[in-house]
Write a structure and sequence with these properties.
Helix 7 crosses helix 8. By secondary structure, the protein is α/β, with parallel strands linked by helices. The strands form three sheets. An eight-stranded parallel beta barrel has the order 1-2-3-4-9-10-11-13, surrounded by seven helices. A two-stranded antiparallel sheet has the order 5-6. Helix content is 39%, strand content 14%. The protein has a single domain, classed as TIM Barrel, CATH 3.20.20. It has 16 helices and 13 strands.
Length: 456
Amino acid sequence: MSQKRADQMSLVAFMQAGNASVYSGSWRHPATEHGYLDAAYYAKVGRQLEEGCFDLMFFDDRLAMPGIYGQSVAEAVRYGARPVKLDLSVVLGVLAEATSHIGLGATYSTTYYAPFHVARTFATLDHLSRGRAAWNVVTSVNDSEAQNFGVQSHLGHDERYDRADEFLEVVAGLWDSWEDEAIVADRGSGQYADPTKVHELGHVGQYFSARGPLTVPRTPQGRPVILQAGSSGRGRDFASRWADLIFTGDPGFDVARAHYADQKQRIAESGRDPQTVRICPMAYAVVGESESHAKEREAMFLEDLVHPMASLTLLSELMNYDFAQHDLDDPITDDLLAQASGIRGLVQGLREHIGGTVRVRDLAAHRATLLQGPRFVGTGPQVADQMAAWFEDGACDGFVLAATHMPGSFEDFVRMVVPELQRRGLSRTAYQGSTLREHLGLPRPESNHRGAGMAV
């Protein structure tokens, strides 16, 4: 399916508010700063990314330590397999004050939060950041998270998405419960707002009920930007209905290009314009002052920093399946997948990329090392060449860049790659708009409020 594409690629920074980046060995890198418990650390990274004119920085999250492997958190704690996760609303509050342009996103679960809470959190962030808020929608993945919220086991795969669909309906309705012109603020008459333009939602559904209205007026963006990363068929359909930006985990170019075409087709079939949704694979950039320097860095990341047990711990978390019962060379069979209720779509992508049997060691390495997405290695111009090839040949609308070490990975990219992308016209040289939707070239949605005006 052919689509007119944006001239410039989206640049998104994939963040963690914890001890390691997406690359689980990052905490061991000699240049990593262990400042993740200090507000100044996040402020510094935000300003660095803003200097590189990134569209957005958003934070991944889990609501539990990885504790599926061996039914214990011991290995996650021992090997630093992301046991630390800070509260993202506080982190984004710091960044809203420290930055002025870059979009600010956080992961919130539709399984363990309430729609009103999420709607209010992101509406508040959108106001306080002057239109820069984004919500990364997840359905959560494992029983460890369930057990932190008083439930013994996680919902099944399809039921999670059924619940998420209704969750988004409620949140969208709450965001629209104030019309843009609702606030009058007439000091003389004493009228603060027009009650005919503030609407109760009155939602009663299978999973949720919410009266409304929201206690936060309509936001600068109309609605915060929605991110989503569903990779299974059900997940792709969900993203097609709701997402403004879809980030993927495709390991190679051919898989990514096929995913891109499939996702754009699904978006069109859902009745939306595919041009209004950006699709960005997760990628690593390993940049050096010379090609040999970059390759030396890559070798260290691939061979020296990720402990195998950290890989297995994170794989068990992702798949909601205890891999302690398997050898590394055991195949990932359909029977095994039937027992795992976590993220399934990445297995299919890896099968297509490998072209054969996927074994436990393949999947574990894919999850915890630099194999999870494309890896661009070389000097600044060489990395820009590789990124341009993906962007110009129909595999993506931009990239979600994960860090190999913090904050140096982003510093290297901004210093050596961004100027090359800017020189080629593939990245902005300055922010033109003030909101995240403007950065991404997305329209401001019209209000679609429900119900009758409330009486006061």
